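Annex B. Sample input.
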Amino acid sequence: MNVTADQLDALQELINIGVGRAASLLNEMLDSHIRLEIPFVKVLTAADTYHELATRFQNDSLATVRLGFTGSFYGTAGLIFPTESASTLVAILTGEEPGSADLDAVKIGTLSEIGNIVINGVMGSISNVLKQHMNYTIPVYLEDTIENLLLSTRVSDSNIILAQARFAIEQLEIIGDIILVFEVSTFDALINAIAKEISVT
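Annex B, continued. Sample output.
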């Protein structure tokens, strides 16, 4: 399905609403002020997504928090960022020194919570604005290369929404990617729902 510029803009706005809500929740939990921004959103094939992320991250080990969703739309959503950036983010949010043994102990729990808040914020925004119901699985934390992380989504008929999320915390920018994955049938349903919402507004 071809996505029009208006539909892509509407999709980006839905994601921006979601990360805005997520940032508000994170700010309530933390002493540091965190700002989340979405510079761009792309709709890509699985192969193009792999190529873009593999070019950017090469063979780096990445941290990711991923969960599945079902309902009006189904697929998986993940928050992916380089492991080093993940450690820096956790250190800022928890007050632990980078490289400390204690940091590793709290990293998985902290990143899982952040990923859960951000992904649920985005998916909640989509379901609320489009008036569609979705259920979510428990978030799973993984560290691996982009090739292994995307193995389950590198199928020919997958459409992937790739949104780059920029985290700004106390003047320190940490770059991460929010990846939303839809099977073709539910992706079409999503775009149709967005098109319907645009026509109403």
